[in-house]
Amino acid sequence: MVRFALVFVLCFFLPCIRGISFYLPPQDKKCLKEEIHKDVLVTGEYEVSEQQGLSSNLKVTDSVGHILYSKEDAKKGKFAFTTDDYDVYEVCFESKAISGGNFRFPDQLIILDIKHGVEAKNYEDLAKAEKLKPLELGLRRLEDLSDSIVKDFSYMKKREEEMRDTNESTSLRVLYFSVFSMFCLVALATWQVFYLRRFFKAKKLIE
């Protein structure tokens, strides 16, 4: 019952989690990376403080460089996409100087709020579309959160199985290599014994 209550509270408070903010120096680039599962809705909302003479470009890409969202002179906006595969996704802000000269520009403040999975769903629109009561909406949100947790555990189990198979395969290869190395050493030692024996017989040092 305590676990159910904890999950229920997390379900209601997860959408209230605030984003992150950081300062972007002029002519600099900062990126944020995150691993996200397959078929997951990702939404982002950003706001860049305006500085005269500076502009910031925003680009969202995956690990192979596919551009999922791009915006030049990004000031304030939103983006959304659904992941095609489990991958590392990157959000980059790059500062560019509009005017020339050796002016000293102040850093730009960037506020970024990224949500994915249950956090990214708009349950208010869902409640209006399906005419859900507050309790029904809370149960729907709890159901989605439970499914997300189950998927995470399934993925962790799959990764654990893959790592175990890799470890077993590596151990087996190491065993075969060790046996082969011992066989080579024994064969080399035997050949040396017979070679020295023939050498000493040829020199008539032994009979």
Automatic annotation (TrEMBL):
Residues 1-19 form the signal peptide. The chain crosses the membrane at residues 174-196. Its main location: endoplasmic reticulum. SMART domains: EMP24_GP25L. InterPro entries: Emp24-like, GOLD_dom. The keyword DNA damage does not apply. One of its GO terms (cellular component) is endoplasmic reticulum membrane. Belongs to the EMP24/GP25L family. This is GOLD domain-containing protein. The lineage of its organism: Eukaryota, Metazoa, Chordata, Craniata, Vertebrata.
